Amino acid sequence: KTLDALPPPREIPFEVVPEAWRPAFARAASVNGYAISRATQPRLLVPAETQIDALLADIEAARDSVHIISYIWLDDPVGRALAQALTRAAKRGIKVCVLVDGLGARKFIRTPIWAAMRAAGVQTGVAFPFHWPLFKLATSRIDLRNHRKLAVIDARVAYIGSRNIAAPEFEIKARFAPWTDIMLRLEGPVLAQHAHIFASDWLTHTGQALASENAPPTPDLPDTPAICFASGPMLDTRAIPDVFGAAIGAANTSLTLSTPYFVPGEGLDAALRAAARRGVRVRLIVPRRNDSRFVGFASRSYYPALIAAGVEIFEHGPGILHAKTLLADDHALILGSANLDRRSYELNYEACILMSDPVLARDLAAAQEMWIGQSIHVDRQSLARWSVLRRLMNNLISILAPVL
């Protein structure tokens, strides 16, 4: 699977990016061949209701097209509301294309509402179908997934982040609810990269090529340097650890990350410890209770060395903090669908965005501070209270870290 269409032209000179962040932007540019582009009017959507309300409003206002990728789509109030909005859009002549993952949305694609969407004219695609998995295992790989969360409307507005099409109550794993996510709504020339990612996925999984759309004129507003990077097992399996590692290495004063699945591997683990040892305030926010017990154990196996190096660790609860974010020096940020684990590095198709914007960084900092306020600080004293059995389980499961 490749992103084989021509990338959009260069929009911003490389020199516009602050010098410290050029290695991260350069590595992101090498992933798909995209150039540094411009985002206008970026808006961080933190409360769950604002994420869906904004997306529904943009779908209702669509004039030409609506393109959506989601890993999971549930038959719940949010999933039904979005499906109904897309159905209405298709009925009024909007070209609506929806791509879901065959595993993450396996139940939804068998529901009457999915059939109703198709009957109304919504074009649908399924990435990596999951029918007859044992048979497929004999003929192909079943561990590859399209984990992206992406929307492009009218070549005018895009959404990217961690939110699946599901309510925070997340019915399939309700005992871990609520699920806390984050999305970014943005406009401007960088949308060409979002549209390119969608078009490539659509061609790969449906065999249909999408016609290019002309973006509306960019308003005369302050620009934010931005670049997307879309990784995957047949694209660039080092993209996520390398871009995150470059951003971590560039941090000078502060660094805050959130991820639901923290099994970073030796490279990012060492980068975080090195940042803390050179005087950067490094904070890591992870769920207090993980929906994967194995990942929870493996994550905690990294705690002692991180805390010894000076990294501050916060376990968020209640529910699952599902937002995948990085903020460095209140200036540069990364968010998207990628977790800090080997599955995201090597088996999932992910989509993230790297940006340099102090105003947007301030908003992300506020969200991260809110999550920290809902968290328990895990320090040396906390580790000392761990039982022998708990330490043993952490270290035993850590042996499996390379495959988690």
Care to describe what's here?
The chain is of the alpha/beta class and 404 residues long. 37% of the residues lie in helices and 23% in strands. The protein has helices at residues 22-32, 48-60, 77-91, 112-119, 133-139, 191-206, 239-250, 265-277, 293-301, 303-309, 342-347, 358-373, 380-384, 388-398, and strands at residues 37-45, 65-70, 95-101, 123-127, 145-146, 150-153, 157-161, 179-180, 183-187, 224-231, 254-258, 281-287, 312-316, 320-321, 325-328, 332-336, 348-356, 375-378. The strands form 2 sheets. It has a 16-stranded mixed sheet that branches. Mean pLDDT is 92; it is low at 5-10.
Provide tags for this entry.
404 residues; alpha/beta; 37% helix; globular
The N- and C-terminal alpha carbons lie at a distance of 23 Å
In the predicted model, the low-confidence regions spanning at least 5 consecutive residues are 5-10
Helix content: 25-40%
Largest sheet data: 16 strands, mixed
- Strand percent estimate: 15-25%
Cα gyration radius (Å): 20 Å
Class from helix and strand fractions? alpha/beta
Number of beta strands? 18
Shape: globular
Q: What is the average of the pLDDT values?
A: 92
The total count of helices amounts to 14
